[in-house]
Specification:
The complex is a heterodimer of chains A (213) and B (303). Chain A is mostly helical and 213 residues long. Chain A is built from 8 helices and no strands. Chain A has helices at 11-41, 45-69, 76-89, 91-107, 111-131, 133-141, 145-177, 180-204. In chain A, helix 1 (11-41) packs antiparallel against helix 2 (45-69), helix 1 (11-41) runs antiparallel to helix 6 (133-141) and helix 2 (45-69) packs parallel to helix 5 (111-131). Chain B is an alpha/beta fold. Chain B has a single domain (79-298), classed as Rossmann fold, CATH 3.40.50. Chain B has helices spanning 2-23, 79-85, 106-114, 127-136, 152-161, 186-194, 213-224, 250-264, 298-301, and strands spanning 30-36, 41-46, 50-56, 63-69, 96-100, 119-124, 145-149, 168-171, 201-207, 228-231, 237-243, 278-279. In chain B, helix 6 runs parallel beside helix 7 (213-224). The longest helix of chain B has 22 residues, at 2-23. Chain B is globular and about 85 Å long. Classes of the chains: A mainly alpha (213), B alpha/beta (303). The interface between A and B is medium-sized, with 19 and 24 residues.
């Protein structure tokens, strides 16, 4: 067992930055979701209802699974895999969304259920994986029971701030300057880079400083 | 006791005055109905001349969507409606019409009066608009006029799959701020084009004063080729006319106009005045990128 008990806290700022990025990207994709679905399912209120429902559901499942995974050897490599995994799971959205939506548009008459099923197919997996990031981040940063609420508060602050900025930046500026796919691809690349940074750090320092097993 | 009673009367009178003042806004305009639908606030106002439907975003602002004069209900109030009707000079006698956006029902009523045998389908996303039009603007569905409540993009996509055709498609969707982005893209216009038979025509009500002017114009041109732009002084609207056939030139429209004058006169305008406002000139920046499903920042470019 690695008995390195030095106050090695290199990973704290990295986790904070990554949590911010995750928050940003989750909301950016949710906002783009409406734009992506509109040509096939319209922009009625139930389309937004479907998108938000799926995001909430996916995140909740992600939180549960991420929390569970944090019980077993919490480390930066696994953490990084959430990011790279989410990046790959977003590829169908980038490259095959039109085909998927066309198929479901033809299959399902009612645009309410059509939009719900499409949202599940396009957003569930990547969002669930990104949901695992939040609880896992808490586990990586918490060092004492006494400080655990404080750590969680700081993390949620950072990631929700990311969400707010992701919402604002996407709806105010990004859609004005870029195509939907350009924005999505940039996010995929950002997730890959973020994941790679975490994984490489994890390979260099296998056990984060203050984590007690 | 008497003093209490008189205080009570004063109080009641004051309440009545406050309520009345609320009901009677400026300029003698009364708010006779207000409704918040899923998509917007709908306000029905009335003054001594006319009754109007308004979409508002903030509490009492917004523009009138549809108005009707009390004493001359058939007369078209807004220039954009007259410009739309003048498109008959390009293509007459539609047997099947699709209108996107109901408003107060002005266009369906006018077209059904002109063409009683013509089938008119209106696609309106907001059930509340439909009810308000029915309850306050005498709009009626008949065996020739039907309303499909739902998103027009979905309706048009499905109609295309069913192979349906419409001689005339009028695009008049408005969400209170602008036209919905997914109803302005090249892909959408291609889906509309699929509904047009050989002599089909598209007439779109949009704006001449937005930063989207060039982008919209280029998008229509990309899909339909040459288009007519109808612009008039005194209005910020402009109407685009696109056809599956080559467009007749302005001189031809001027020749045709007198034959239409009597038919359109009951609606309150002299159509012979309109060819001068109709132009195929390209007076915008043709390098402005077109609007697509990937890139349609419509709501942000409007002011």
């Amino acid at each position: 067992m690695n008995t390195n008990t030095s106050k090695n806290t290199y990973h704290i700022p990295l986790v904070m930055v990554l949590a911010f990025i995750a928050g940003f990207i989750i909301m950016a994709i949710e906002l783009l979701g409406g734009r992506i679905l509109a040509p096939y399912f319209g922009s009625s209120i139930y389309v937004w209802g479907s998108i938000i429902t799926v995001f909430m559901l996916s995140l909740s499942i992600g939180y549960l699974v991420g929390g569970k995974l944090s019980l077993h050897n919490p480390n930066m490599k696994t953490y990084g895999c959430f990011f790279t995994g989410a990046a790959f799971l977003l590829l169908p959205l980038v490259f095959w969304s039109n085909q998927i939506m066309e198929y479901l548009f033809l299959l399902i008459e009612d645009p309410r259920y059509g939009s719900l099923v499409v949202s599940l197919m396009l957003f569930f997996l990547p969002t669930a994986v990104m949901g695992m990031i939040a609880p896992y981040s808490v586990r990586l940063l918490v060092s004492t029971t006494h400080g655990s609420g404080h750590v969680a508060g700081k993390l949620y602050f950072i990631s929700t701030l990311g969400s707010a900025l992701g919402t604002l930046a996407t709806s105010f500026y990004l859609v004005l300057w870029f195509e939907v796919n350009q924005i999505l691809i940039t996010m995929v690349l950002t997730l890959l880079i973020a994941g790679a940074a975490a994984i490489m750090t994890g390979m260099k320092y296998p056990v984060p400083g203050h984590i007690d097993s | 006791m008497a003093q209490l009673k008189s205080h009570l009367w004063v109080f009641l009178l004051a309440m009545l005055i406050i309520l009345a003042r609320d009901a009677f806004a400026q300029n003698g305009v009364r708010y006779i109905h207000q409704e918040r639908s899923l998509y917007r606030n709908i306000l029905v106002t009335e003054d001594s001349n006319r009754r109007c439907m308004r979409f508002t975003i903030t509490s009492r602002s917004g523009q009138n969507q549809s108005c009707r004069f009390h004493d001359r209900p058939m007369e078209l109030v807004f220039p954009y409606a007259k410009m739309t009707l003048s498109s008959l000079l390009v293509q007459d006698n539609p047997r099947r019409i699709l209108i996107v956006g109901l408003g107060g029902g002005t266009l369906p009523d006018t077209y059904s009066t002109l063409f009683p045998e013509t089938e008119i389908i209106i696609s309106e996303i907001d059930d509340a608009v439909y009810r308000v039009a029915r309850d306050y603007f005498d709009f009626e569905e008949t065996d020739r006029i039907t309303v499909d409540v739902g998103d027009a993009r979905v309706y048009i996509k499905r109609a295309g799959l069913r192979g349906e055709k419409f001689d005339l498609v009028i695009l008049d969707a408005f969400n209170g701020e602008y036209i919905p982005e997914h109803l302005m893209t090249a892909e959408f216009l291609q889906e509309v084009k699929k509904l047009l038979p050989e002599n089909g025509m598209v007439v779109a009500n949009t704006f001449s004063t937005s930063r989207l002017y060039a982008a919209e114009s280029n998008t229509y041109r990309e899909v339909f080729g040459e288009i007519y732009n109808i612009r008039m002084p005194g209005t910020g609207n402009r109407v685009i006319v696109a056809s599956m056939q080559p467009l007749p030139d302005q001189a031809t429209l001027e020749e045709r106009a007198p034959a239409f004058r009597d038919r359109l006169e009951p609606f309150g305008f002299d159509v012979t005045e309109y060819p001068q406002y109709m132009s195929t000139d390209v007076n915008w920046d043709t390098s402005q990128r077109i609007l697509t499903d990937q890139y349609s920042p419509a709501n942000l470019l409007n002011n």
